[in-house]
């Protein structure tokens, strides 16, 4: 089938490349001429494992192409996916739908023949109704079905998530629309991926509800971790003990510095606004956002405690800046308020990240960036492990202690074992576990 993918951001590029790999003819469209030129040169604008090879192979097979002009791809398409950004709107936290609606108007003018227009972007409930209204107002003669098909991709594992999904949600009550989207996703039938057909508004709400629930699990275990520290329990064992219950499950029960990224903060905030607009309160979700926002800054106070009560004139080495491993995404990363807090308390901050330094410089300009974790730790009064990149999971603790001014490690991801850190003579603080005073 012929597919036009509007937007070459994270969702658009991954989805377009995967659809092409299924054998469909895909054209990805973006107004950013520089980005399209880079893609033609084989340069991928985002870091996602395996994406460069996937794009390259499908471009060579002539199943994947890129352009700035949507007219021809939309006119020829069986399905047009809208995968543009929906950032939080300044001032009120609502999802900014400017790009979605602009894309709908341009698509409407270019439509020829029966076409399914699909919102792939994360959008508030009712957005599909407005997209349909815009299209029919712009082009009353259009033979079009507007559907919702939310994405559930994890950064760092997006290709696998697309090809081996837990479920595929399709929101449309139109049989022709269901058939087109069923044909597009038919290659996944071999993986027995469940196709869930719902009404359009239901599909839109499923996406927000899923992200808010996962954010709630993270926040719940973080609060349990705070209690575990006070009562002398181990939050990792607590998480395993409750996660073995099939009704709860073990995923997203890893205590840490709070959630970040492009989805959870934005989508959870937007869901609260949607509820308020419909005179409904989501008190649990509201509490999740408040707890998470406060937690990120509070992590700086853990560092203060570990070094003895003051950071004035001290050097802190921060390992890991992106919101999670295997991505260069700095959006709402816990490292940002943490580092800002450390600087505000008078610390000099040095930092390392395997792939995120270029993006981090835009958010944290007052930091000294290092090319190597041991260089970053040299002369430091404390190390703070923020993102659990694999490169940080088996560091030479003897070497670290040797190059540091003081052997203090604050592990916000519980990568290391307290007994191991004690053996090496570190002052060690983690999240929801016993602290180590050092030799």
Any overview of this molecule?
With 439 residues, the chain is α/β, with parallel strands linked by helices. It has helices at 10-21, 33-40, 51-60, 71-76, 98-110, 127-138, 158-163, 175-184, 200-231, 235-243, 264-277, 283-307, 335-344, 357-363, 373-377, 397-403, 418-423; strands at 2-6, 25-29, 64-67, 79-82, 115-119, 144-148, 168-171, 195-198, 315-319, 348-352, 368-369, 382-385, 408-411, 427-429. Helix 1 packs across helix 3 (51-60) and helix 5 (98-110) packs parallel to helix 6. The mean pLDDT is 96.
Largest sheet: 6 strands, parallel
User: How many β-strand stretches?
Assistant: 14
Q: Which class best fits the helix and strand makeup?
A: alpha/beta
Measured by DSSP, the beta-strand proportion falls in 5-15%
Shape: elongated
User: What radius of gyration results from the CA coordinates?
Assistant: 24 Å
How far apart the termini lie comes to 66 Å
Mean pLDDT: 96
Helix content: 40-55%
Low-confidence stretches: none
Q: Count of helices?
A: 17
Query: How are the strands of the biggest sheet laid out side by side?
Result: 3-2-1-4-5-6
Q: Brief overview, please?
A:
By secondary structure, the chain is α/β, with parallel strands linked by helices.
What topology does this entry show?
Layout: E1 2-6, H1 10-21, E2 25-29, H2 33-40, H3 51-60, E3 64-67, H4 71-76, E4 79-82, H5 98-110, E5 115-119, H6 127-138, E6 144-148, H7 158-163, E7 168-171, H8 175-184, E8 195-198, H9 200-231, H10 235-243, H11 264-277, H12 283-307, E9 315-319, H13 335-344, E10 348-352, H14 357-363, E11 368-369, H15 373-377, E12 382-385, H16 397-403, E13 408-411, H17 418-423, E14 427-429
Parallel strand pairs: 1-2, 1-4, 2-3, 4-5, 5-6, 7-8, 9-10, 9-12, 10-11, 12-13, 13-14
Helix pairs in contact: 1-3, 5-6, 9-11, 9-12, 12-13
